[in-house]
Amino acid sequence: MSERGRVGILISGRGSNMVSLVEAMRSGAIDADPVVVLSNVPAAEGLRRAEELGVATEVVDHKKVKPRRAHDAAVVETLQRYRVDLVCLAGYMRLLTPVMVDAFRHRMLNIHPSLLPAFPGLDAQRQALEYGVKVAGCTVHFVDEECDHGPIILQASVPVHDDDTESSLSRRILEQEHRIYPQAVSRFFAGVRLEGRRTHAAP
Ligand code: GAR
Questions:
Q1: Do 118 and 196 belong to one domain?
Q2: What is the pLDDT of residue 1?
Q3: Of 31, 55, 95, 130, which alpha carbon lies 20 to 30 A from 67's?
Q4: Which atom of ligand 1 sits closest to the CA of residue 19?
């Protein structure tokens, strides 16, 4: 990539990971620019935060654009219009069809609030508490056709305390999410080599 990388960020809600990515790009910690924040939910709080940060926003409402394949096709078309090099899923609560996965293979990352492969899917922090693990965490990984499954770029762990609730554990994990997602994106633009499921940072 000769010019600065162009990043599209997909959200469904609050958008705190989106903010941490935008701030890291603006500060120069990531050698790329946030070119669009897209949501499937028109009322997503993160869209307002993106506007405040001066990032272009787009909505592809999943309640209006159906079925799932057509929704994904509209999202892909929008991201291509912004010429994004990398797509970051940041609390984007949608199962993806091959339309999306194929369009951005090895160019789409996700953050998930568990130490994958433990606790994929919804309510990962609650799953971790209910299972009784003593260590929890978060994972940034490439997206493939299976949910919360692709090759891992970075993980961070946190302790689970005896008196943790879902919200106290989620907060502790979220702090780590805000730290490792920008690091993983930075690593992506520096070059990540894939060897099966294993990823290697550029030397
Ligand atoms: C984050 O904890 C993220 O890891 C999680 O949703 C939250 C979004 O928060 N994503 C998933 O569970 C995806 N499977 P945010 O909107 O404040 O970034």
A1: yes
A2: 46
A3: 55
A4: 18
Residue ranges making up the domain that contains 83: 1-104
- When the pLDDT of each residue in the chain is averaged and rounded to a whole number, the result is 97
Is 15 close to ligand 1, i.e. is its CB under 6 Å away?
yes
Minimum CA distance residue for ligand 1 atom 10? 91
The structure's pTM equals: 0.98
pLDDT per position as a tens digit, 185-203: 999 999 999 999 999 998 8
> Ligand 1 within 6 A of 137 CB?
no
Intra-chain end-to-end CA distance of the chain, in Å: 17
Q: Which of 120, 139, 147 is nearest to 17 (CA)?
A: 139
CA gyration radius for the chain? 16
Q: Name residue, tokens 């978060």.
A: 138
User: Are 83 and 173 within one domain?
Assistant: no
> What type of residue sits at position 143?
V
